[in-house]
Structures are given as structure tokens and as C-alpha cells.
Structure prediction request, 127 residues.
Amino acid sequence: MKSLFDILLRRSKCAHTHALINTNEGYCPDCGVFLKKYFYIVRCSCCDVKREAKVYFGDILPKEKFCTNCGSKDFYVEKLDVISFIDISYAIHTKEIVDLEHFDFANHQVWVDENKTVQMKFLGKCV
Ligand SMILES: [Zn+2]
Ligand SMILES: [Zn+2]
Prediction:
């Protein structure tokens, strides 16, 4: 499992390294922001199978170009608050800053096609 945060580390002052060790949400002991752990899973748009994900310049993309199950190129990225043990090997996890006043508790889903990049709304906000 790769952490997207390893990549963001260079862009933000605090890496929140000591935050969310045993929890899914809480305050960072180093900078005091409220953080929440999110998981991203890449799925095939055609057959819905889970595809191995990679982080490429801040975007979450499937590792392979084509779905090994149906041969489709299209995929979407699913954002989850919690994840099952089985899915953990597929998931990319992030520690994202939560704006508690505007926090939307509904599940987010981010849809992409091959020409668009994933809109990573909460990422890169840690300055
Ligand atoms: Zn921090
Ligand atoms: Zn497929």
C-alpha cells in the first residue's frame, strides 16, 4: 500500500507523520489540523472490477492500462472512509485535512476518464 502523502510531503510543511496512527480521524500532533484518513480504489467502469492503483503526479490511476478482466480502458476512482481488509492491498490512502465547518459527511465519489485528471479537492491544502 502506497501513501499519496509520501508524494505530497515535498509540497507541504507538515507531513502529519505522527497523526492517525491508530485512528481514522483526529488532530495532527505536529500542526494541529483535523485530519481524516481516506482510501481510494480504482475500479473498471465497464465491469466494476477492482484495479491496482498508482499515484502519478498526484493523480490516482490504474497501474495497468487495460482492465485484465474485460479489456476496457475506462475507470473510475472510488473514495472511501473505511475499507475492508480485503481491499486494503488495492487502496491508496491519504491523510486529508478536514474543514469541519464545510465538511460533507456523505460519501464522495470522483469520476474520471482517461483525458481528465482526478480532482483532489482536499489535497495540497496543508500549507
Ligand atoms: Zn500535521
Ligand atoms: Zn473491466
Notes: The pocket of zinc ion (ligand 1) is lined by residues 14, 16, 19, 28, 30-31, 33 (CB under 6 Å). Residues 5-110 form one domain. The chain has one domain: 5-110. The beta strands are 25-27, 34-44, 50-51, 53-56, 59-62, 75-80, 92-97, 109-110.
